[in-house]
């Protein structure tokens, strides 16, 4: 019996089926190698402002809409596959092999929202669904509808781990993560019991056939899943399994850069191959490090992270530049070159129109940075988390929560003389449905990232109107209220509503772009100036009624890219606060090709909040010049001549809000002339 379980058990007996299970999205409260620990699901409640609106739209529109898609066999076969595999309905498996995982991601979003709202209808809906999922599970814990449906129709028809592209461990990983969230949110063990049997199945498989698991670690969500199961149950076998799963990656025969298993993880120094897989892998390894403290893991993680952050990430926080490519590209030893897809490219290879940037890859980057932040307490990881959430992740979903981007380019031109695999506009349903439920669960769960606690006090990672109700490490209850119009305005007010009778610290994140921030406590300005790119610590004995005001300057900044980012040379991206902006052709005079618009490097943009535009956004207004483009028919090069130009007013909108007003050209990087 684990110590932590005893009081829970008593609560369970007392409160019938529902007990007071707790824990954060990543339950790091007992993790020995983290600096920052998660707060419980439900400890943060959005009250007003940006994230409150996004959460409401996720709860009221995106989640119910997605259930209709997932439960309609004429659109998606995700839930139908479970019904067929459970023997409740006749039929066959349809949809991609990873469809189970898609469904678990959506269910995780529902569980998290329930944890924040305690909406009983959601609870009943989850109960019904979990009953079906449990019926699918085989005696030995295996749960994967494509194989189970085939086995129902003929026991010899199929067996597990026959094809690494069956995504079994990916599906099982999402089941485990979802089950942990469900247990923490509801206190019910119905799905956790299923996930335990699934984890036990992997443990047994690891003992008897480790190569099966090494070969089938495609898009490894199960590293995160298995560690989370260890955190939830404290069963040491699960932690051993997670460690082993990382070690056996070196055993793969014919490993690839695309799957990050050509060489053992600890030898890796660069981000290569499929970006979702790479980011999921690193997030899972960070989880293992949080529990084991194996320094060789952190060393590799930091090297790969630097490769992404300083050489391979877009200004929007999106990652995975290439549709298709090879690795290592241009290698002297040509027999070493392999194909990669939806992948990291070479350093600084960041095309804009053809940027792949799968939504799941940006989410993987969020998951990875969240864990790096917990391990280190360093603000640079929170900066990345915030950048990716406001720009990369939010752009992947329409403002009404019903349409989704699979890929996230930084420019769109009308006339593209070649086909790309995925739609260049958001779609209500995508045949590969991995991204939409991943986006929905991520938006539902932003509250989980907003605050952390440590032995010293409370950490503010993301700003937004909210109430935090939690306990410090020693059990002292604390309640803080935050009021702000961030990210549109830089004033953040924090009111202490309840605090333990002792000294502790509040750590306020000052983003790297916020030079010249100021802080006051109870109206008195602090002498020390907070440094941008750090957490600023205020330590004192707090009492109810204390007020803190953080003032972040919100300058509109023109950004330039490293000179080796060839596709963004002599161009500027515009950023205000954490928001990256873009120009859309619907905001230009009729029939102006977006490529003919340029700005001056000293352009001054004025910010203006527009309540009625795009769900309420701050736009940037300024001057630009439009150059007569002339015809490029049968022309690849032409003499440069002085071109006529005229000055126009332009309006930039936040990148995340683009493509919500019909077809439009778009650019993040604007030419400088
Ligand atoms: Zn995806």
Short structural description:
The chain is α+β, with helices and mostly antiparallel strands. Helix 4 packs antiparallel against helix 5, helix 7 packs antiparallel against helix 8 (190-208) and helix 7 packs parallel to helix 10 (221-233).
Would you mind describing this structure in some detail?
- There is one protein chain.
- By secondary structure, this protein is an alpha+beta fold.
- It has 17 helices and 25 strands.
- Strands 6, 17, 18, 19, 20, 21, 22, 23, 24 and 25 form a ten-stranded antiparallel sheet that branches.
- β21 and β22 form a beta hairpin.
- α7 packs antiparallel against α8 (190-208).
- It is globular and about 75 Å long.
- The model is unreliable at 1-19 (pLDDT under 50).
- The structure holds zinc ion.
- Zinc ion (ZN) binds at residues 358-360, 434-435, 438.
């Amino acid at each position: 019996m684990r110590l932590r379980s005893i009081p829970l058990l008593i609560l369970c007996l007392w409160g019938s089926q529902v007990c007071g299970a707790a824990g954060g999205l990543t339950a790091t409260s007992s993790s020995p190698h983290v600096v920052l620990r998660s707060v419980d699901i439900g400890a943060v409640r959005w009250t007003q402002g940006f994230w409150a609106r996004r959460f409401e739209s996720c709860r009221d529109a995106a989640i119910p809409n997605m259930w209709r898609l997932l439960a309609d066999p004429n659109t998606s076969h995700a839930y139908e596959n479970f019904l067929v595999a459970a023997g409740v309905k006749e039929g066959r498996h349809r949809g991609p092999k990873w469809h189970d995982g898609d469904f678990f991601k959506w269910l995780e979003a529902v569980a998290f929202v329930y944890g924040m709202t305690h909406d009983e209808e959601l609870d009943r809906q989850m109960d019904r669904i979990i009953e079906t999922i449990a019926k699918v599970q085989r005696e030995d814990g295996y749960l994967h509808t494509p194989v189970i449906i085939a086995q129902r129709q003929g026991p010899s028809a199929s067996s597990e781990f026959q094809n690494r592209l069956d995504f079994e461990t990916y599906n099982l990983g999402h089941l485990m993560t979802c089950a942990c969230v469900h247990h923490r949110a509801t206190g019910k063990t119905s799905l956790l019991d299923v996930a335990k049997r699934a984890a036990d199945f992997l443990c047994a498989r690891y003992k008897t056939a480790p190569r099966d698991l090494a070969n089938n670690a495609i898009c490894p969500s199960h590293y995160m899943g298995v560690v989370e199961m260890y955190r939830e149950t404290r069963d040491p076998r699960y932690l051993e399994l997670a460690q082993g799963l990382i070690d056996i990656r070196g055993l793969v025969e014919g490993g690839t850069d695309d799957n990050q298993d050509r060489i053992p993880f600890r030898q890796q120094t660069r981000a290569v191959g499929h970006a979702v897989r790479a980011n999921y892998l690193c997030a899972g390894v960070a989880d293992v490090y949080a529990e084991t403290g194996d320094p060789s893991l952190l060393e590799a993680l930091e090297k790969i992270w630097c490769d992404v952050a300083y050489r391979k990430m877009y200004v929007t926080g999106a990652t995975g530049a290439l549709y298709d490519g090879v690795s290592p590209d241009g290698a002297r030893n040509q027999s070493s070159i392999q194909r990669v897809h939806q992948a990291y490219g070479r350093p600084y290879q960041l095309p804009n129109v053809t940027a792949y940037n799968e939504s799941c890859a940006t989410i993987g980057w969020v998951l990875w940075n969240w864990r790096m932040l917990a391990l280190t307490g360093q603000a640079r990881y929170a900066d990345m988390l915030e950048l990716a959430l406001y720009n990369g992740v939010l752009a992947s979903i329409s403002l009404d929560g019903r349409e989704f981007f699979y890929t996230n380019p930084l420019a769109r031109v009308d006339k593209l003389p070649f086909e790309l695999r995925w739609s260049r506009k958001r779609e209500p349903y995508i045949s590969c449905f991995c991204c939409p439920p991943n986006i929905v669960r991520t938006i539902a769960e932003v509250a989980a990232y907003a605050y952390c606690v440590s032995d010293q006090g409370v950490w503010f990672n993301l700003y937004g109107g909210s109430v935090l109700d939690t306990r410090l490490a020693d059990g002292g209850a604390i309640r803080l209220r935050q009021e702000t119009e961030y990210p549109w305005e830089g004033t953040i007010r924090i009111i202490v509503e309840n605090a333990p009778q002792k000294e502790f610290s509040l750590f306020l994140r000052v983003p790297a772009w916020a030079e010249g921030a100021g802080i006051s406590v109870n109206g008195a300005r602090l002498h020390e100036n907070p440094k941008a790119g750090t957490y600023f610590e205020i330590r004192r004995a707090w009492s109810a009624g204390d007020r803190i005001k953080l003032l972040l300057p919100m300058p509109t900044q023109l950004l330039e890219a490293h000179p080796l980012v060839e596709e963004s040379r002599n161009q500027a991206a515009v950023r205000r606060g954490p928001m990256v902006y873009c120009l859309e052709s619907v905001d230009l005079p009729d029939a102006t090709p977006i490529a003919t618009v340029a700005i001056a490097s000293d352009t001054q943009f004025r910010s203006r909040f527009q309540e009625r535009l795009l769900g309420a956004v701050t736009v940037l207004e300024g001057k630009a010049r439009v150059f007569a483009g002339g015809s490029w028919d049968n022309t690849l090069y032409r003499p440069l001549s002085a071109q006529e130009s005229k000055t126009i007013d332009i309006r930039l909108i936040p990148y995340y809000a683009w493509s919500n007003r019909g077809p439009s050209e778009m650019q993040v990087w604007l030419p400088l002339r």
